[in-house]
Amino acid sequence: MDFKTNIQSLDKPSSVSFNLSKVKLPNSNDIYFRAKQHELVEQYSAARIFMRETETQDWKHWFKPLENEDSNDYVRFFFKSHFYETALFYYNAVVDISWALCYVATEFACSQKGVRVSINELKTIEEAADLLRASERNVTSPTAENNPFIYLKTICPEFTPAIDQIIEFWNNFASSDIRNRYNYCKHKGRPIYTEIEKYNSGRMMNIYLKNINDSEFVQIPSDIRDVQYSFSLEEAIQTLKDFDDNTLFPYIDKLINTLENILQPSPMIF
């Protein structure tokens, strides 16, 4: 599977050169931003690993080929469904991490044991790590009632462009099939896929009841598949790839560039 973009371009610089006498010393916000940037790229990479695996032709390392070709197709689709769902989780993780990326780059104070502590200066390693964990706990979805972004736009107006990008993306993404399917798999169960179901045995029985008010018969559920959430696996994989190429990457790329321009993080961070 070929993607239009190289996600390594989203990561923190792998090497830099600078004039030590003129360079800006790093502060905690720089460190936090670079840390989240790198973590986001790693999760993005994982999403693409499993997306590519949906097109693998090397099935022998996943299962021993069976004599019946229909059985082989069934097992291949079974594995593809798990690759798809894993990629789905990672892509949604990237979206969620983008909120943390912006938040930790924006927030100049967070709560530690009930005390407001400034984080715009370097701390010890232990203090800095504890403060980042505290900041991460404050992150919620961009439109949640207790979301901190509106407050941050007030106290840090220079970050308004980045926060607006997150809110605009979320407003378009929150009710999408990709987010809904992720939430379903995470909280409600596992869908069934039309490509897999065609290999399963047919219904054992059909049950109909006559409508009392007229002569029509209505069918009632007699098979668990009657009520399970169902959609096409192949179409879902293509939808996820299109989302990566045309929506997610441009959003993350623009957000990182916007935050880079605002923060101007120190080149001393690796």
Order of SSEs: HHEEHHHHEHEEEH
Please count the helical segments.
8
**Order of strands, widest sheet:** 1-2
User: How far is the N terminus from the C terminus?
Assistant: 31 Å
Residue-averaged pLDDT: 82
The strand count comes to 6
Helix content: 40-55%
Largest sheet: 2 strands, antiparallel
Structural class: mainly alpha
Assembly type: single chain
Proportion of strand residues: 5-15%
Helix/strand layout:
Blueprint (H helix, E strand, L loop, with lengths): L27 H26 L15 H38 L2 E4 L2 E4 L6 H13 L11 H7 L4 H14 L3 H12 L3 E2 H4 L9 E4 L6 E4 L9 E2 L1 H31 L7
Parallel strand pairs: 3-6
Antiparallel strand pairs: 1-2, 4-5
Helix pairs in contact: 1-2, 1-8, 2-6, 2-8, 5-8
What would your notes on this structure say?
- By secondary structure, this protein is mostly helical.
- 54% of the residues lie in helices and 7% in strands.
- It has eight helices and six strands, in the order ααββααααβαβββα.
- It has helices at residues 28-53, 69-106, 125-137, 149-155, 160-173, 177-188, 194-197, 233-263; strands at 109-112, 115-118, 192-193, 207-210, 217-220, 230-231.
- The strands form three sheets. A two-stranded antiparallel ribbon has the order 1-2. Strands 3-6 form a two-stranded parallel sheet.
- β4 and β5 (217-220) form a beta hairpin.
- α1 packs antiparallel against α2 and α2 packs parallel to α8 (233-263).
- The longest helix is centred in the first third of the chain and has 38 residues, at 69-106.
